[in-house]
Specification:
Radius of gyration: 32 Å
Number of helices: 13
Distance between the termini: 108 Å
Strand content: 15-25%
CATH topology of the largest domain: Alpha-Beta Plaits
CATH architecture of the largest domain: 2-Layer Sandwich
Order of helices and strands: HHHEEEHHEEEHEEEHHHEHHEEHEEEHE
Largest sheet: 6 strands, antiparallel
CATH superfamily of the largest domain: Reverse transcriptase/Diguanylate cyclase domain
Shape: globular
Oligomer: single chain
């Protein structure tokens, strides 16, 4: 045995080494506790911030969802308000059978429209349907509920681009309504007789649940009489500024949903917890971005054809007009209208008409350049903005599109459907207003239709100054 192993003089050194090891262990444990404590405080603050942000985003999503639903109802109304046949059969020469097939039974069964009314310029009820059945006296009830606050707006504001929307209570049932004046198909001002069309849908539990599923709002429902957190509810007000119904939804808490994944086992390291929490937060942000992208798509694209809607077209057009004015380059505009489209609806039904619109939009979209802007302008009418394009190029593009549409065949229920288009062409004049550009293209479109349809017509135009 080595002598030094039993040397009592070595004891203080071994004791000091052991004491030093304990101090290092305590120091490491203290550092670990401080680290975990700091992480816990940071994590708690971060999760609370994320939860608060999630609450605010969800409340905003509910408001955006209701706004989009109002716009979609308004878009549906616009297709009828800009239809000369509708004005004739509902106001000028009321045809009950036609009305029932187009705004009565059809709307109730296929579009969930609970109320549709055509009103003459003298504020008398021309024809009305409720739940798909012809009714009387509905207009008087609506006026008592505040409808007269909307009618002067649509009759006096001739530059208004959209119909008016509002919530209104009728016989104890809250409804979302849209109202707009009849407007001739090739005009931008309301009909001189002041007649208007109104449609509404019931705000019931089934509809609210459908909105919740579509816009990813968890358990969207009527709040009932229970006390609701203001951050998790939204109150609907009618035209009289009275609170009628309160919507509520479940809280979506990223922190609560993910805390079990990042529970802090004593054996885990601080770095591992940071990596896991960062990954989870990033995934949650990714999901929110996808949902926000879906909302943007609904707000900017036509739900039937998938191309831009009229509102988004105007936004993009204003931006392009600014660039065109700054750089003084050419820009052209096409307005296209499907020839005899209403005959397709009359002979084969609205489903066939919808499929034909979808196919035409696809043909037009695929025939354009990457930087061209196409949108559904309303009904069977499309508008195309051609940046950096002079009149000669615009004519070539328009003729190519006309031929592509004419050659396209849609097979619908073993029936081959074909359609042609009339196209109005014009070029932008330096610093002119958008409405002047559109009006000039409209006149060219009207000339193309008057000349026999299935052709392109050029309006008078100049290049940039």
């Amino acid at each position: 045995m080595n002598r030094s192993e039993n040397n009592p003089n070595d004891f203080p050194a071994r004791y000091q080494e052991s004491d030093s090891g304990r101090r290092i262990f305590v120091l490491l444990l203290l550092v670990l506790c401080i680290s975990f404590g700091g992480y816990y405080l940071i994590f708690r603050f971060a999760t609370q911030s994320i939860d608060n942000q999630a609450r605010a985003e969800m409340k905003s999503r509910v408001e955006v969802a209701l706004d989009i639903e109002s716009r979609r109802l308004g878009d549906l109304l616009t297709e009828y308000a800009f239809w000369d046949v509708a004005h004739k059969n509902l106001i000028q020469q009321p045809d009950p059978q036609w009305a029932d097939e187009n705004i009565g039974t059809y709307m109730a069964d296929n579009l969930s429209i609970a109320l549709s009314i055509a009103v003459r310029g003298d504020n008398s009820e021309a024809i009305a349907f409720r739940d798909g059945k012809q009714a009387t006296g509905v207009l008087a009830d609506l006026r008592r509920a505040g409808l007269d606050k909307l009618v002067p707006v649509i009759r006096t504001d001739t530059s208004r681009p959209d119909p008016q929307n509002a919530f209104i209570e009728l016989d104890g049932q809250l409804m979302l309504l849209a109202v707009d004046t009849f407007t001739p198909e090739f005009e931008r001002s309301p009909a001189a007789d002041g007649a208007y069309l109104l449609i509404a849908r019931s705000i019931d539990a089934e509809y609210i649940a459908t909105i919740g599923e579509l816009y990813k709002i968890p358990n969207l429902r009527f709040a009932g009489g229970a006390a609701i957190d203001p951050a998790l509810s939204h109150t609907l007000q009618d035209l009289e500024a009275k609170s009628r119904l309160t919507l509520a939804w479940d809280e979506r808490s990223p922190a609560k949903n993910t805390s079990h994944r990042i529970a802090l086992p004593l054996t885990a390291t601080f770095l591992l917890m940071v990596v896991i929490s960062g990954w989870i937060i990033r995934m949650d942000i990714g999901r929110r971005q996808q949902q926000e992208q879906m909302l943007r798509e609904l707000a900017t694209h036509d739900p039937l054809t998938g191309i831009y809607n009229r509102r988004q077209f105007f936004r993009l057009a204003h931006r392009e007009l600014g660039r065109t004015n700054r750089e003084k380059i050419a820009m052209s505009l096409l307005i296209l209208d499907l020839d005899h489209f209403k005959q397709v609806n009359d002979h084969y039904g609205h489903v066939a008409g919808d499929q034909l619109l979808i196919n035409t939009a696809k043909v037009l979209f695929e025939g354009l350049r990457e930087f061209d802007v196409i949108a559904r302008y309303g009904g069977e009418e499309f508008v195309i903005l051609l940046p950096n394009t002079d009149l000669k190029q615009a004519q070539e593009i328009a003729e190519r599109l006309r031929v592509l549409v004419e050659q396209s065949v849609l097979l619908f229920r073993k029936v081959s459907l074909q359609v042609t288009v009339s196209i109005g062409i014009t070029t932008y004049r330096y610093k002119e207003e958008p409405r002047e550009l559109l009006a000039r293209a409209d006149h060219a479109l009207y000339a193309a239709k008057s000349a026999g349809r299935n052709q392109c017509h050029v309006a008078g135009s100049h290049g940039p100054d």
